[in-house]
Amino acid sequence: MGAIGHKESATTVAELGRASYDVAVVGGGIYGAMLHLEAARSGLRSVLVERGDFGGATSENSLRIIHGGLRYLQNLNVARSVESTRERQWYLASVPRLVRTLPCLLPIYDHGRKRVSVLSLGLKANDAISAAVKYLDCSVADVPHGHVLDARATLELAPAIPADGLVAGAVWHDLALRSPGRVIIEVLKWAADLGGVAMNYVEARRLLIAKGRVRGVSIAEPGTRTSAELRASVVVNAAGPWAGALARKWGAADDRLSPLVVAWNVLLDRPPLSGHAVALQDPSSAGSALKFATSLGGRLLVGTGYAPLAGTCESAEAVAEGELDAFLAEVNRCVPSLEATRSDILRVFSGVLPAAAPRSCVPRARNLLTAGGPRGLFTLSGTKFTTARSAARRALAAIRRARVLRWPGSGPQDYPPCHASAADGLFGNEWSMLDLEARRAGLAQILEREAVEHLDDLVLRRTTLGDQPVRALSAARALCALNDRWRQ
User: Fold this and answer.
1) Paired residues of 208 in beta bridges
2) What per-residue confidence (pLDDT) applies to 285?
């Protein structure tokens, strides 16, 4: 158990029980973290508890792309395009150390539905929306404009894609997350700067209710007898894939929270196809969803595959062999020269998302906020890393309209500047044991200040060491030497 808060905040379960809060957030993924931050920005006393590690479930297994609004323009969904564009610009301006501009390439074939003229128009509309959002929000950052390439230039960017029938390529720009875990830690640190406190490895159990209103939640350290009652006027269930089960337990069942889909991205022991993220198309299935091939730790990361969740949320860590085989077969049809097999898989990043409908293979398109059950209980369920902040802002506005707590008179504070330590855990593709030794002091600071309890917290969510699983495993003994508890 560890805490991220200002120096005078609670650091134990018992100390949390001696304080009182306006908002208690249950769940430390990107949605819970953003809600915690937005509450703290509004001047509310906010606390967050997470039964595992911060960002340790679906958030950790993201494809790491912050999508702008181009994908929504094909359905003329301008509102969602504006929302995603606004969030992309916010990430670029607010956490510049933790994102990089990512050029994306969509090969255009003569047998496909995405004709050159239509995509050219879409790219121009996307650029116009970006410019308008930047102007209206007084944003200081944006990505380059999109453009169309001829077939030859497209093949120069991605030589491995099929050349037969290729007529052009569309290029636009999104953002790549350098580390989802470090983004979440930065958000929690911002909340701490504003008076919030977040604690991992603390489980929320029983909802506290008096006269039909929420009064808090009982909390405990898993595997121990240490428990306390956390007092809060509002409790927000942001438990990700566990949100539906928690809502039922707390008397706020909602059928929309129940259908779940397992999603996965596969890291292959192959070099990236391009310096661009390449949208892959299965030539044997005109209606198949695009898959994106990008780079992680100098290797090829391909996503995303979906299937209805067959077991529990925890079982999603082991994607069914048949699903992986079908996924690799589709990837190989998209890039025949790849010839990827199961032996080429370095790591499977899998998580659980809310599904569009029972037994659906498609994630729910929209974020969901419900207010069922006792007065003061809310449930926030989302699907996109990109739109977590906007969902948190809307959720907080709904909480304010519900008049379930006294709201501060002042407006939201500005976001704190990005901490100098934000990029401390970022390692290059060619890191070695010498790099670990040279950065020993920085790693020690992460251990001390960022609620690291276990080795995988450090490797997978506080640093990018886990982006190269084989090399990270070889460094495990040296990493254990950083903490006396891990040597045992």
Assistant:
1) 216
2) 66
Q: Yes or no: say if 218 and 229 are a contact pair by the CB < 8 Å rule.
A: yes
Percentage, residues of the chain above pLDDT 90: 69
The tens digit of pLDDT for each residue in 61-109 reads 999 999 998 888 888 899 999 999 999 999 999 999 999 999 999 999 8
Three-state SS string over the chain comes to CEEEECCCCCCCHHHHHCCEEEEEEECCCHHHHHHHHHHHHCCCCEEEEECCCCCCCCHHHCCCEECCCHHHHCCCCHHHHHHHHHHHHHHHHHCHHHEEEEEEEEEEECCCCCCHHHHHHHHHHHHHHHHHHHHHCCCCCCCCCCEEEEHHHHHHHCCCCCCCCEEEEEEEEEEEECCHHHHHHHHHHHHHHCCCEEEECCEEEEEEEECCEEEEEEEECCCCCCEEEEEEEEEEECCHHHHHHHHHHCCCCCHHHCCEEEEEEEEECCCCCCCCEEEECCCCCCCCCCEEEEEECCEEEEEEEEEECCCCCHHHHCCCHHHHHHHHHHHHHHCCCCCCCHHHEEEEEEEEEEECCCCCCCECCCCEEECCCCECEEEEECCCCCCHHHHHHHHHHHHHHHCCCCCCCCCCCCCCCCCHHHHCCCCCCCCCHHHHHHCHHHHHHHHHHCCCCCHHHHHHHHCCHHHCHHHHHHCHHHHHCCCHHHHC
Note the pLDDT tens digit of each residue in 380-412.
999 999 999 999 999 999 999 999 999 988 888
CA distance 482 to 244: 39
- How far apart CA 385 and CA 29 sit, in angstroms, is 9
The residue to which tokens 């915690």 are assigned: 36
**Dist. CA 331–CA 168, nearest whole Å:** 21
Whether the CA torsion 142, 64, 426, 338 is positive or negative: it is: negative
Please say if the pLDDT value at position 43 is more than 90.
Answer: yes
Residue 55 token pair? 């960002």
**pLDDT score recorded for residue 113:** 56
The model's pLDDT over 125-164, given as tens digits with 9 standing for 90+, comes to: 999 999 999 989 888 888 999 999 999 999 999 999 999 8
CB 149 within 8 A of CB 171: yes
Distance CA 292, CA 431 (A): 26
